Structures are given as structure tokens and as C-alpha cells.
Write a sequence for this structure.
């Protein structure tokens, strides 16, 4: 009787990546914290004490309540309220949904563009490679936040103030995604230059497979390791970039704020004593970015064959 082939979970449990993960307490804590924050954001409508985006439930008389454990706090609002009477804890949970959605969408967008251009540049070579890499070099001369501000300003001018609020999410994804695609393209190009001369690629050419088939079905799976590492680290950068744009007033509107918008709103009242409005969203943003960055650092080391 032939032996049963190991399943996916068994192979994952016996892999070097899982072994590395279980041997790093800091990585385990980072994964738990990141997973808890993501789940709390996804389940915000179920676990949030209030709906901060429903005007019918807000009262201006509830504004500027400090955290509930202070002498002037209200037990209904654990972390206090902002200038509109919104519960800070609820706005953080809902704000994380927007920040994470923009972060994930922009990383996927940048990854699709960068990986595709990197595959084409490395596999085709010649003038195509030179054109793509020169565009990438020009892109690298501009800071990511400047590129995002430029695209956001153009979109704001073309759409107008009223229509802009309807497309602000897509504009943020576009502006942040176009700021990060170069890393994927350069990394994938370098890996493809190595892979395209290996025997399996030569064999695929010999049997008449089309270049696009070879690139995406045979070469791409062998260059995804570094791409996953870049995507994990860029997720934290994308969340911080979105928060920076929102803090500067060019992100999502205050009626549906992200973490960056909450920090900007709270900054207006920081020196008048209402510290909780900006401190708690700031701590949440820092913890989220730090946990994702630590996971990215671990993944980079776990997938590096020189460190095994």
C-alpha cells in the first residue's frame, strides 16, 4: 500500500519557515498583536461600543470626555471622546479598517505593477529593460510622500472638492501604490536575470511555450520569496504613508477618519489638555506598524538561505 502524501498543513509544520517562527518569541508576539489588531478592525461593527460614523448617535454634549479611569471620565467611553462626541475606542477600531484597507490595496496594486514590469524587464531585456529601469530610476529620485502628494493634488484638481470625496479611497491607493512599485520591479528583475538562464526555462522554450506563459507560470513562482518580504514591509510603510497624507489633510475626510485623520484632529487639541484624542490613535498606529515591520524582518531572515 503506497504511503499517504503529506498534506499542506503537515508540510507547513515541517518547513524551515515554521521552525524559524516557533523559535522566535518576538515574532510570535508580533504575529499575535498584528492578528489581534486586524481582527478587531474587521469585527469593528460587532465589538465597537458605538458607531462613530452615525450622526444620529452622536451628541455634542459628550465631547471632550477624558478616559473613563480618570476622575472626570464617563464609563460609556473607555478611552474618552473627541470634539464631536465620538467614542475614541470606536473611532480607532473603525479608523484601522480604513488604514488597513488602503494599506493592503496599495501594496497589492504596487506588487502587481512592479512584479509585471520586473518580469518583462528581466526576461525580455534590451531596450525594454532599459526603458523600464530608467523610469524606475526617475521614480526613485522622488520621495514616496512627494509622489503621493502630487498624484493626490492632480486628482483633487480634476475631480473637484465634491466629487473628490467619492474617489478619495481609490486616489490614495493609486498614489501610494505608484510610490512603491520600483522596489518590486528591481528585485524581480534581478531574480529573473538569474532564473531565465536555468535549464527549466530553456526546456520550456524548447517545447515552444510562449514567453508570457514561461514568465508567469514557471519563472514567477521562483522569484516570489523576496516579493513577499517586500510586501510585508511595504504594508507598514503604506499604512504610515496613508496616515501621513491624512495628517496633512489630503487623505480620507474627517467624517470617516483613518488613524492619520484621528491624529490630526487630536493634534488641534493636544496643547489644550485633551491629549487622549491624539495619543491613543498614535499608539495604535505605532504598534500596528511595528508589529508588521517585525514580521517582515523575520520573514526576510526565514527565507534567506544563507541564514539557515
Amino acid at each position: 500500500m503506497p504511503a499517504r502524501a503529506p498534506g499542506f498543513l503537515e508540510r507547513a509544520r515541517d518547513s524551515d519557515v515554521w521552525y524559524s517562527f516557533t523559535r522566535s518569541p518576538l515574532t510570535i508576539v508580533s504575529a499575535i498583536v498584528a492578528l489581534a489588531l486586524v481582527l478587531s478592525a474587521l469585527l469593528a461593527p460587532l465589538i465597537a461600543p458605538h458607531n462613530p460614523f452615525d450622526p444620529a448617535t452622536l451628541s455634542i454634549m459628550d465631547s471632550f470626555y477624558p478616559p473613563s479611569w480618570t476622575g472626570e471620565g464617563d464609563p460609556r467611553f473607555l478611552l474618552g471622546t473627541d470634539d464631536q462626541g465620538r467614542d475614541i475606542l470606536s473611532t480607532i477600531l473603525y479608523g484601522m479598517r480604513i488604514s488597513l484597507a488602503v494599506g493592503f490595496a496599495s501594496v497589492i496594486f504596487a506588487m502587481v505593477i512592479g512584479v509585471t514590469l520586473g518580469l518583462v524587464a528581466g526576461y525580455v531585456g534590451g531596450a525594454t529593460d532599459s526603458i523600464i529601469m530608467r523610469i524606475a530610476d526617475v521614480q526613485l529620485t522622488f520621495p514616496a510622500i512627494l509622489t503621493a502628494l502630487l498624484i493626490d493634488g492632480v486628482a483633487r484638481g480634476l475631480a473637484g472638492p465634491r466629487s473628490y470625496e467619492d474617489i478619495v479611497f481609490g486616489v490614495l491607493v493609486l498614489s501610494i501604490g505608484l510610490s512603491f512599485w520600483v522596489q518590486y520591479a528591481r528585485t524581480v528583475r534581478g531574480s529573473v536575470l538569474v532564473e531565465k538562464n536555468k535549464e527549466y526555462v530553456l526546456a520550456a522554450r524548447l517545447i515552444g511555450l510562449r514567453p508570457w506563459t514561461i514568465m508567469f507560470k514557471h519563472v514567477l513562482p521562483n522569484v516570489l520569496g523576496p516579493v513577499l518580504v517586500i510586501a510585508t514591509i511595504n504594508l507598514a510603510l503604506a499604512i504610515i504613508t496613508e496616515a501621513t497624507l491624512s495628517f496633512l489633510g489630503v487623505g480620507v475626510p474627517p467624517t470617516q477618519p483613518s488613524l492619520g485623520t484621528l491624529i490630526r484632529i487630536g493634534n488641534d487639541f493636544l496643547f489644550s489638555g485633551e491629549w487622549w484624542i491624539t495619543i491613543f490613535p498614535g499608539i495604535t498606529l505605532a504598534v500596528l506598524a511595528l508589529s508588521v515591520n517585525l514580521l517582515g524582518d523575520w520573514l526576510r531572515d526565514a527565507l534567506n538561505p544563507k541564514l539557515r
Notes: The radius of gyration is 23 Å. Residues 102-308 form a domain with the MetI-like fold fold (CATH 1.10.3720.10). The mean pLDDT is 83. The chain has twelve helices and no strands.
